[in-house]
Amino acid sequence: TRLRDSQLGDERVKDVKNYIKKGKLWEAFSSNKRPILLIDEIDKADIEFPNDLLQELDRMEFYVYETNETIKAEIRPIVIITSNNEKELPDAFLRRCFFHYIRFPEAETMNEIVEVHYPGIKQKLVAEALRIFYDMRKVPGLKKKPSTSELLDWLKLLMVEDIDAAALAEKDPTKLIPPLHGALLKNEQDVHLFERLAFLARREGAGSRPGQ
Predict the structure, then answer these.
(1) Could you tell me which residues come within 8 angstroms of residue 125 by beta carbon, excluding any fewer than 6 positions away?
(2) Count of CB atoms within 10 A of residue 65's CB?
(3) Which residues in 67-83 are b (16+ Cβ under 10 Å) and which e?
């Protein structure tokens, strides 16, 4: 933008400050009220990113090379950092953190989460969907357990397709894999696992019939 403005003879080009956009850390440090700064899923960032933040979060200031100025927090912000633990974070970084583990929601809490996203949803449908959802999460060998977002997507599809609670409550072993399971199972290995379980359930069901 500065190059373009220089070609157009814009006076703004003489001051580089006109071309620097404040990031969230800058906004938090310059706030005149105590801000809450969220650094979400830090484990997905570049491996050096947590180390790059050490000094800034420790001293509550950072240096802007372009303008030769130091931005210091007027009021120390509350910094919340989330991680899915997909990769290890540096010990030096963790030492500066107060750790809090958020457990996966129980059925009661999950029901409240569903109600927030889909007010007035049929409770029988939710009850059966939650039963299947938590049963699926208990299956050993799953590469990726379905999470809250998958559950919400699945419920939305169930409502769109007008699949009721009775269909989900079906006990036929040939229907072990739930309808629209593609919203819950996100990789080939897990789909094959459930297909195998369905096959074994059908075989056991056939073997238990009279005369077999």
Answers:
(1) 155, 158, 159, 164, 165, 168
(2) 6
(3) eeeebebeeebebebeb
**Cα angle vertex 49, ends 45, 53, to 5°?**
135
pLDDT band at 181 (very low <50, low <70, confident <90, very high): confident
Query: Do 83 and 42 touch, CB atoms closer than 8 A?
Result: yes
Residue 125 to residues 12, 115, 173, Cα–Cα distance (Å): 60, 12, 20
Q: What is the model's pLDDT at position 173?
A: 45
Q: What one-letter code names the amino acid at 12? A: R
Does residue 41 contact residue 81 with C-beta atoms inside 8 Å? Answer: no
Cβ contact 43:86 at 8 Å: yes
Comparing CA positions, the residue from 141, 133, 148, 132 lying closest to residue 191 is 141
pLDDT tens per residue across span 62-103: 998 888 889 899 899 999 999 988 888 888 888 888 999 989
- Structure tokens belonging to residue 9: 């003879």
Looking at residues 147-176, what average pLDDT do you find? 81
